[in-house]
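lol forgot to send this yesterday, sorry. struct tokens for the thing we talked abt
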């Protein structure tokens, strides 16, 4: 009986460990914002602002580059369901580009290669969703998008690299929560 109980305990422990969890810089997503913010601050990210739609903006360093993080929270429970990273460079002033088109392409290639190595998967271009250059799911809980954003602002053309991590479970909970009031 003891052996059976011990075996069952190990199975439950290993099953819990085997479940995939979306992480950004080692910080578990799908957690309350207060925890996520504490962990970001430990990594020297600085709070910048909260937008009208509730998106929280931070500045810091990621992949040895200066970035802006956009943290998205679920409506009801204020859990982190998405983190969008915009690589902004040292000369960032609102919409100033990181650098030349070549520098943006090199950064994009370096990120793609790093993600392929980290998740041990060859990243393929998503032909269905033309909005993003790359969309993939390294596990059952994570969606990652990597793309080059091109925009025109006040007749200034610029490009920058965006990388988005989405915790699928929390994103779905957030989507369905809008029906709670019906």
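and heres what i got for the seq, position by position
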């Amino acid at each position: 009986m003891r052996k059976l109980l011990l075996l069952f305990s190990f199975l439950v422990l290993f099953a819990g460990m085997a479940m995939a969890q979306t992480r950004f810089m080692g910080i578990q997503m799908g957690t309350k914002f207060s925890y996520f913010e504490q962990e970001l601050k430990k990594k020297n990210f600085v709070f910048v602002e909260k937008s009208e739609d509730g998106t929280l903006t931070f500045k810091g360093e990621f992949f040895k580059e200066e970035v802006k993080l956009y943290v998205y929270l679920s409506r009801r429970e204020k859990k982190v369901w998405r983190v969008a990273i915009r690589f902004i460079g040292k000369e960032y002033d609102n919409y100033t580009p990181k650098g030349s088109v070549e520098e943006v392409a090199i950064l994009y290639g370096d990120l793609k290669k790093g993600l392929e190595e980290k998740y041990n998967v060859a990243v393929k271009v998503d032909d269905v969703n033309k909005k993003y250059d790359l969309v993939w799911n390294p596990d059952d809980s994570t969606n990652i998008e990597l793309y080059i954003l091109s925009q025109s602002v006040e007749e200034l053309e610029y490009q920058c690299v965006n990388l988005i991590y989405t915790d699928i479970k929390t994103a779905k909970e957030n989507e369905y929560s809008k029906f709670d009031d019906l």
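Helices lie at 2-18, 33-42, 101-119, 168-177. anyway ping me if u want another try
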